[in-house]
Design a protein that fits this description.
Blueprint lengths: L2 E6 L2 E6 L4 H7 L23 E4 L5 E3 L10 E3 L3 H17 L14 H8 L16 E2 L5 E4 L8 H10 L4 E4 L6 E4 L16 H5 L5 E3 L11 H12 L6
Parallel strand pairs: 1-5
Antiparallel strand pairs: 1-2, 3-4, 3-5, 6-7, 7-10, 8-9
Length: 238
């Protein structure tokens, strides 16, 4: 096993070659904000919150999909990065309809947590107030696209862990949205197994269990990581 040595915010880190900068930061005990990343799922670099700086270049790199290399000098908390992350979170709030006071995930929302972490107390950008649909046709669950941040966790957990392939991303630009079964009502998609993994994976209150009221949404994130590891290690193969 080959090992790479690098520095992150001045800390020396040694980690297996092929690991990502996010893995290396966790090894060093350094927290990097992220929303689209979830342990047990593939990384896609969609939210752009985990961007870091590398010595020798002016470009920013997503830590969740950038592999470590020998001798890297990584910065994760520079003023430039802090300003960039705050702007990104402000844009997420401005482009959706995030009314925390009536959201099922209020107080248990990763978007709220990240907003606090980056010091956001308001958005400098004009709120778009888009017209987005709510689908409660499923007997157990619902999806409120007003709260969706297009992290694609639901798409990946349904594809990679459950294998049902219910969710996908449709359209482009401001019309981009998560759809079920080629844009059919969720309750009519026979491929859905009603497993609830998309609810556990969702970082906001966009996908929820029916009957949950404000602040009641709970998740079991460790279940997703356990299932992914067990399948990779063929623990259920006889």
């Amino acid at each position: 096993m080959s090992v790479c040595t690098l520095t992150i915010d001045g800390k020396d880190v040694a980690i297996e070659a092929g690991a990502t900068l996010l893995d290396a930061a966790k090894e060093a005990g350094i927290e990097i904000p992220r929303l689209c990343y979830l342990e047990g799922l593939s990384s896609v670099g969609a939210c752009r919150l985990c961007m870091v700086e590398l010595a020798g270049t002016n470009k920013l790199f997503p830590a969740c999909v950038t592999a470590v290399a020998e001798g890297m000098e990584v910065r994760t908390q520079s003023p430039k990065l802090q300003n960039y992350r705050r702007m990104t979170v402000e844009l997420l709030f401005a482009e959706g309809n995030h009314v925390c006071a009536v959201c099922v995930a209020n107080g248990n929302c990763e978007l709220q947590d990240v907003a606090i972490a980056v010091g956001m107390d308001h958005s400098r950008f004009t709120y778009q107030f888009p017209t987005r649909s709510i689908d409660i046709s499923h007997p157990k669950f619902g999806i409120d696209r007003n709260r969706c941040i297009l992290c694609t966790r639901c798409v990946r957990v349904c594809d990679e862990i459950e294998g049902a392939h219910v969710w996908d991303v449709a359209n482009r630009g401001e019309n981009c949205e998560i759809v079920a079964g080629l844009d059919r009502p969720w309750g009519e998609v026979s491929a859905c197994t009603s497993c609830g993994k998309c609810v556990d994976a969702c970082p906001t209150g966009s996908i929820f269990r029916k009957g949950e009221t404000t602040g009641e949404k709970a998740r079991d994130r460790e279940k997703l990581e356990f299932l992914a590891q067990a399948r990779q290690q063929h623990e259920w193969v006889r």
